[in-house]
Design goal:
The protein is of the alpha/beta class. It is built from 19 helices and 22 strands. The strands form four sheets. A seven-stranded parallel beta sheet has the order 8-7-6-9-10-11-12, with helices on both faces. Helix 5 packs across helix 7.
Amino acid sequence: MKKIIITDAVDKKCAGIFEENGFEINYNPGMPVDEIKKVIKDYNALVVRSDTQVTADLIDLMDNMEVIGRAGAGVDNINIEAATRKGIIVMNTPGGNTVSTAEHTMALMLSMCRNIPQANQSLREDRWDRKKYKGTELQGKTLGVVGLGKVGREVAKRSKAFDMNVIGYDPVLSEEITNKMGVKLVDLNTVYLKSDILTFHVPLSDETRNMLSEEKLKICKDGVKIINCARGGIVNEDDLLQALNSGKVSGAAFDVYVTEPPVPNSPFIHHPKIVATPHLGASTEEAQEKVAIQIAEQIVSLFKNKGVRGAINASAILSEDNKELAPYVRLAENLGVLHAQLNKGQLKEININFSGELLHSSTTLLSTAVLKGFLSKKLTAGVNLINAPFLAKEMGIVINEIKSGANSNYTNLLTVNFVTDKEDRLLAGTVFGNKEIRIVDIDNYHLELKPEGFMLLYTNIDKPGMLANVGKILADANINIAGLSLGRLDVGKEALTVINVDSEIDKNLLLSISSISGVKNVYSVKL
């Protein structure tokens, strides 16, 4: 009999489903971590929300654990790498709180535009400030939705019901899909330029951190209003505070913050033009019931061999059976991750070329691994080998699979070409004898690159001293070079340099490198 322990306040319907299926349940919300450590070795499944911190130390004690289930979307409190290393599946429930977060976004939008919290407080203090709290209507206003995933789409749909003009930005969604939604797909700068109200629904990543800051606020309309129900840090709080004080931004509504809970007496939280709630996006009875039922059903399905759903780390688990193919799955995923960080513009299509008999027999798996890598950098919800094709289809992503004959240089070669409205980018890789994955072609520059950790990529004029100039900037910043790969088109012409480094390269350093005469197309990526 499978034994399941629930250590957070998950809706009791979760435990009920387990009991109905004959599993032994320990429902113990609020259980101290020291107590969890004493008993965790006996359990096959752990179900948590956000309170229990599932650390590497705790995972190390899990002798019989098969699955860790998160009743919710975010898995920041679970050490995914440690769980994967130990062969434990980690599941979440993306989509369970979609409606609740979308509705909360609408509630904040209305509250902000009609000054409802401020007016309510004024009346409670026996004041009658009708003139002071004159609001604005939603009808006819342009709403800019940054991120048209599940939540963004639901917000767009509800906003259309208020007769708003909705425009949106999403780097992986097709125009065909957004047209059906009644949303005009535009670039990010156009969203900032045209919107009366901006709402953010993207994951927090290196690409989205501070995506609305002082520089971008300057191109926004005077009097724009800002909403963030996604993740703290997407909007720069200090820059927004200055914009509120100057009048550039007329109002803001936030449910998430860089620091949670915010520091006492935070000037941001206490600003009179801000409507603030304590991360309530998923806090509805319906949402908590949905995710509780969903995670229970997913675990029951796993234990009864009916399939794996919602697994965050499925790729590592599913590829273990084929030892020969496993490194190519890792290679495919890495190529997708790299494309996500290198590509500019609106994605049009993905072309994947499989050269070699081994790859010919596994095109679907490898294409899915490419998608998993790419979408994992673009979406909030967990992406895995099971849901990546569905998500891609939902977004209108076009994939062309091509089987070609043996390559003259490599027994098996995987080539992934991403086409956007701004560029056409190619990455190719293979696996060497001892399962070492290598990238051997970037945009027709032939090299041999080990894809791991932090990497700096740039093109430069092929002449003496270029590498030394870049190396000096890295050395002055105390950044150590771990590896170097070079490729060139011809002597004295343009060359591609890829440097593996031991630490992250910030934007200021990238600007310094870009300022070197003869250096261009500078990127910092992370694997």
